[in-house]
């Protein structure tokens, strides 16, 4: 199939090619594949990851490295799938950085980490913090280097509309932006969401925060030399807390008070 609309992006030692023959699908790919990263105009002979959105009859198919992954009537409906498949492919190829499932924002020059599993409400909390003036590292992965600093992972936020469906949202839609440089970690908050109104958090030892990072990394410890040392450096300068929080709006206000900012 001739896919005349295409671009390449270099992200975390991976070359990603996005291709389609549909202008509508091309707009979706351009908007949601690591949007702040430069597009490469020169052809890459063999990309590490090939993302295609093909229009087949009355539907669009998403292919990753030639394998059909999902289909829908509109390319916009496949945007969240594109983000998820890129997450999986890119994180596997990381070198020099360790990923932790965590929301991460920058506040006053330091990073705030919100570690937690998928469906734990990280994205909604990150979105509320961005609305209040924070800068976005990621709503899904904190990428930690050997010095313990957090690097931007500039993928769209994926929010839920009250059901299982996710939709992508860019920081610019919240009057915010992606971070453009690494930052030291200032705070780690391991918060469990409870639907009933609740806010009950307390300081915890840095060792507790270290174990929280280890529980939430997708990397097997034995396969990533230096990960323990990187996480130890990450928590060394951080104020660490754990507990329960309620809805994202009120929790964001409480968090900024804790950080010394204004809600």
Question: Can you tag this structure with a few keywords?
Answer:
single chain; 263 residues; alpha+beta; Rossmann fold; 2 domains; eight-stranded mixed beta sheet; six-stranded mixed beta sheet
Description:
- This protein is 25% helix and 34% strand.
- It has 263 residues and is of the alpha+beta class.
- It has two domains: 88 residues, no CATH class; 162 residues, Rossmann fold (3-Layer(aba) Sandwich), CATH 3.40.50.
- The strands form three sheets. Strands 7, 8, 9, 10, 11, 14, 15 and 16 form an eight-stranded mixed β-sheet that branches. A six-stranded mixed β-sheet has the order 3-1-2-4-5-6, with helices on one face. The chain has a two-stranded antiparallel ribbon with strand order 12-13.
- The model has no long low-confidence stretch (mean pLDDT 91).
- Helix-residue proportion: 25-40%
Calculate the mean pLDDT score and round it.
Answer: 91
Which class of secondary structure composition applies to the elements? alpha+beta
Can you summarize the main beta sheet?
8 strands, mixed
At CATH level 2, the architecture of the largest domain is 3-Layer(aba) Sandwich
How many domains would you count in the coordinates? Answer: 2
CATH class of the largest domain: Alpha Beta
Number of helices: 6
Strand proportion, as a percent range, falls in 25-35%
Low-confidence residue ranges: none
């Amino acid at each position: 199939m001739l896919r005349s609309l295409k671009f390449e992006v270099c992200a975390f030692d991976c070359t990603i090619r996005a291709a389609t023959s549909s202008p509508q699908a091309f707009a979706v790919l351009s908007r949601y594949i690591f949007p702040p990263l430069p597009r490469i105009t020169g052809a890459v002979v063999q990309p590490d990851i090939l993302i295609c959105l093909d229009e087949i009859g009355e539907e669009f198919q998403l292919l990753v490295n030639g394998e059909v992954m999902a289909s829908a009537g509109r390319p916009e409906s496949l945007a969240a799938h594109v983000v998820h498949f890129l997450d999986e492919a890119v994180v596997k190829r990381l070198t020099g950085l360790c990923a932790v499932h965590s929301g991460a924002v920058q506040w006053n020059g330091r990073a705030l980490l919100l570690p937690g599993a998928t469906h734990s409400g990280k994205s909604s909390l990150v979105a509320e913090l961005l609305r209040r003036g924070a800068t976005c590292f990621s709503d899904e992965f904190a990428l930690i280097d050997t010095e313990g600093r957090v690097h931007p992972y500039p993928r769209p936020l994926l929010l839920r509309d009250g059901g299982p469906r996710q939709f992508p949202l860019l920081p610019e839609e919240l009057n915010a932006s992606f971070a453009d440089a690494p930052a030291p970690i200032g705070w780690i908050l391991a918060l469990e969401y409870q639907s009933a109104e609740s806010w009950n958090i307390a300081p915890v030892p840095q060792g507790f925060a270290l174990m929280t990072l280890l529980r939430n990394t997708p990397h097997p410890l034995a396969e990533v030399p230096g990960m323990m040392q990187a996480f130890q450096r990450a928590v060394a300068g951080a104020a660490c807390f754990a507990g329960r929080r309620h809805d994202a709006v009120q929790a964001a206000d409480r968090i900024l008070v804790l950080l010394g900012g204004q809600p």
